[in-house]
Amino acid sequence: MLLLELLRDPNIRWILLATTLLGLSSGVLGSFAYLRKQSLMGDALSHAALPGVCIAFMLTGIKSLWFFMVGAAVAGAVATFGIGFITRHSRIKQDAALAIVLSAFFGLGIMLLTRIQQSGSGSQAGLDKFLFGQAAAMIQADVYTMAGLAAFLVAACALFFKHFKLISFDAGFARMIGYPTAALEQLLMLLLVIAVVVGIQAVGVVLMAAMLITPAVAARYWTDRLGGMVVLAGVFGAASGALGTFASTAANKLPTGPLAVLAATAIFVVSVLFAPQRGLVAKRLRQAQAKRDAHRVKASRVGAPEKGVSA
Q: Other C-beta atoms within 10 Å of 178: how many?
C-alpha cells in the first residue's frame, strides 16, 4: 500500500525512473571497467567532474544540466588524458597516476566551489548538491536527458559488446587480429565519462564510483559468463536506484544517492554470502559435505574385511 501511495506522486515517479535508469547503465558499463581492472577510473572521473561543473557555471552563470554535463565531460576527458600521459611518460604506475589526478582535480573543484559559494550565487545554483547528489532537485527535463543518455550507454555497450569483451580479456590478441584497441579503449573511457556525468546530479561526484563498480562486483559472484554478468549488473544497479528512491521517500529528508549506494552495498553483501557457487555460505556447505564424505569413506574402509584372508 505504501508503495502504491508513493507512486501516485508524479515527482517520485520521475525520480524513480531517473535513478533506475542511472543504476542500469552504470552497472552495465561498470562491468567492463571492473574486468579491465579500472575500478578506480570511475572514482577519478567522478571527482574530476566537479571542477568541470564549477567552471561551466562560472562561464555561463546559469544552472543548466547540459552546460554542467559539457563541463564535466571536458574535465573528465582532460583527467583521462592526464592519467594516460603520466603513465606513458614516467615510471609512475596507473594506480598512483589515478590518485594524483583524482586528488588534484577534486582539490581544484572544492576551491572553485568555495569561491562560487562565497560569491552568493553557488547555493542558488545548487552546486553544493553535486558533492553528494540531490535527486529531488531533478525536473522532468533532467529525467528525459538522463533517460536518453542511459539508453545511449546501454545501446553502445550492446553494439560493441564483442569488442569490449575482447579488449577486457586479451587486448594483445585483439590488437593482433586487427582490432583498433586504442580507439576502443578511448571509446570505453568516453562512455565512462558520460556515465559519471549522467549520475552526478542524482548520486554526486563522491559516490558515483560505487554505482559503477559495486553492482558489477556483486554480479560477478553469480555467474562466470560475461553476458550474464553484464545483465545481472544492470539489474542490480537498477534495483539499487529503485530501492534508494523508495527508502529516501519513506524516510523523510534522507538523500537518495547515498541510500542507492547503500542498497547496492547490501546487494553485494547478499551476493558474497549467498551466491550459489562463489558465496561464502555455499563454500562452507561444500566443505562440510566434503568432510562428511571423507569421514564416510574412511569409516567404510575401516569396517570392511580384508581380502585374501581365509578362515
A: 7
Q: Name residue 125's amino acid.
A: A
C-alpha span between 167 and 162 (Å, rounded): 9
Q: What is the 3-state secondary structure (H, E, C) of 260-276?
A: HHHHHHHHHHHHHHHCC
Give me 24's grid cell: 542500469
**Res 131: pLDDT:** 62
For position 40, what pLDDT does the model report?
Answer: 76
User: To 5 degrees, how large is the angle CA 56–CA 127–CA 136?
Assistant: 125
CA dist., res. 51 & res. 108, Å (int): 6
CA separation for the pair 140, 119 (Å, rounded)? 29
Q: 153 pLDDT exceeds 80? A: yes
Q: What is the pTM of this model?
A: 0.83
What count of other Cβ atoms lies within 10 Å of the Cβ of residue 26?
37
Q: Any idea where the domains of the chain sit in the sequence?
A: 10-302
The CATH number assigned to the domain with range 10-302 reads: 1.10.3470.10
Given a cut of 50, whether residue 299 has pLDDT beyond it is: yes
Burial of 282 (0-12, 13-18, 19+ CB in 10 A): middle
The reported pLDDT for the residue numbered 217 is 93
Crossing angle between the packed helical segments 280-303 and 256-274, to the nearest 10 degrees:
10
| Band (3; pLDDT cuts 50, 70, 90) | low
